[in-house]
Amino acid sequence: MYTGNHLWHHASGRLTMGSFSERRRTIRIATNGSLNVETASPGPSLRLLDVGMGGFSARSATPMALQVVGSYRFLTPDRKWSAILRARTVHCQPEMLDGKPTRQFVNGFSFTDPESPAVQQQLCAMMDRAVNNAMSFS
Asked: pTM for this one?
């Protein structure tokens, strides 16, 4: 399972990462509005793009700092189900459209304790809702 340890420092001093296929160890489900995410601690508004057993990605209007651990509330649009999970920001990059950056950022997160039985239970419930409501794989 992905642990978020696939970060490298480039000779220029910039933090760089391998490709998504090198980092991602679990399937991601495109949520297509079937689930939402909110920061449970102070932070920017997020739009959930996809979720998996190892992490999630979300769009924001401002860049998020790398390696910061925060609490995130995942919930159905009707707010009848929710779960709070802790995750670390592992990448943040400008969203590109037709080769040009937009005013949005795509942030990648890895869950901090995905092997814990309590976290596994919440992740399974979240994935069940994502699959049953979205049915679109990324």
From this structure: 0.77
